[in-house]
Amino acid sequence: MTQTVGPSEQLENAPRTRPAPRIHRAWLVAAVAFVTIIGAAGFASLPGLLIESLHEEFGWSRGTIGFAVSVNLALYGLTAPFAAALMDRFGIRRVVAGALTVIAIGAGLTVMMTAAWQLVLCWGVVVGVGSGSMALAFAATVSERWFSARRGLVTGILTAAGASGQLVFLPLLSWVVDRHGWRPAALTVAVAALAVVPFVWLLMRDYPADVGLAAYGADGPPEPRPEPRTGAARRAVRALLSAARTGPFWLLAGTFAICGASTNGLVKTHFVPAAHDHGMAVTAAAGLLAVIGIFDIAGTIASGWFTDRFDARRLLAVYYALRGMSLMFLPMLLSDTVHPPMIFFIVFYGLDWVATVPPTIALCREQYGEDSAIVFGWVLASHQVGAGLVAYLGGAARDAFGSYDLVWYGAGMLCALAALMALAIRRRTEGRIPAQPALPA
């Protein structure tokens, strides 16, 4: 006999949802993520400012200091895919709060170091792992879970948060280093990272279902919160093995490695000492990097808007080609003063700084579906390996040749290669993603 369910029971058993607010909660989550990435960006602003200070105080070569930076950058990238999987297992809030705490510990411990290996341990390993746990894979995870529409724009905004952190911290930290030394600057970063933790814990939520909402722009009722996924490390490796069987993964990884080499590895790490070699004051050079941060915000948000509307492959090709041209001109522009051609370079380069991120994430999403955040984490790992390699090689080249010129020219040619690689990425057709290979339990 069929049991009839009355209207009252139907209402009682229906999923409880909240009426959609005038401003969707997804934008608050995105705002918290933006502030969080700004807080974590402080330590990333320090390497270029501290090379001269550490060289003078401890006598460490620029190559040695560059090696510590390279370890930091490489671990930043290699941690990202596992962090994306950990966010599926334990939630965004727990992983990010823990990562900020680790960054604060690593930054605080650097003030007590007396040997180069301690620099590698604190600055390279501890801070590298902490920052990698809330790297750009964090931005990809937030945009994937909370937004069904405007994903490219949100990705661009969150990517620009790193540049905003640079904008906020670089002038302050350069002034602190110049007036009070490098140790107070490191402590400033530690305090800033800890200050963001309460905002993450109180305001961040893992899924729209946690607050009874659907993702921004989604049709229909809220999707239920998925069950936590166990085996985070296994899933990260499985996603890598699956993606590695496809050509687009290697093209994306190669272009993003060049992206990291030509930005974090080269300009962020070595622009200030290179300008100082030509007689420019450290505070003036740091101010120019901060201006790059200003225009990067506009460029990256615009890139997110473009990514929602145009072919991501062609966008990448244009971005890399323009970046390579600008780097080839830089050795002719460096001098002891800030002159109009240098300002033009700063504006032009700033618009392109990380404009590559939104189209790269979009291509990962197009090619790899629900594993796109983890696959992007592996692509980001290549970005940071490229950055770490050039951070070391740039310092070694300066020690060997007394100039950074060869590094600038080499980076420009690599960017031209990246533009060609971006155009070689094929569009995905349905069913193209191979089945994930099984891993032993």
Task: Describe what you observe in this structure.
It is found in: Cell membrane. It comes from Streptomyces palmae. GO terms for molecular function: transmembrane transporter activity. By secondary structure, this protein is an all-alpha fold. It has one domain: Growth Hormone, Chain: A. 74% of the residues lie in helices and 0% in strands. The chain is built from 18 helices and no strands. The protein has helices at 7-13, 25-44, 47-58, 62-90, 92-109, 116-132, 136-146, 151-180, 182-203, 232-243, 247-262, 264-277, 282-307, 312-329, 340-352, 357-368, 372-401, 405-423. Helix 2 packs parallel to helix 8 and helix 3 crosses helix 4 (62-90). The radius of gyration is 22 Å and the shape is globular.
Summarize this structure as a short list of keywords or feature phrases.
about 450 residues, mainly alpha, Growth Hormone, Chain: A, 18 helices, about 0% strand, globular, disordered N terminus, disordered C terminus
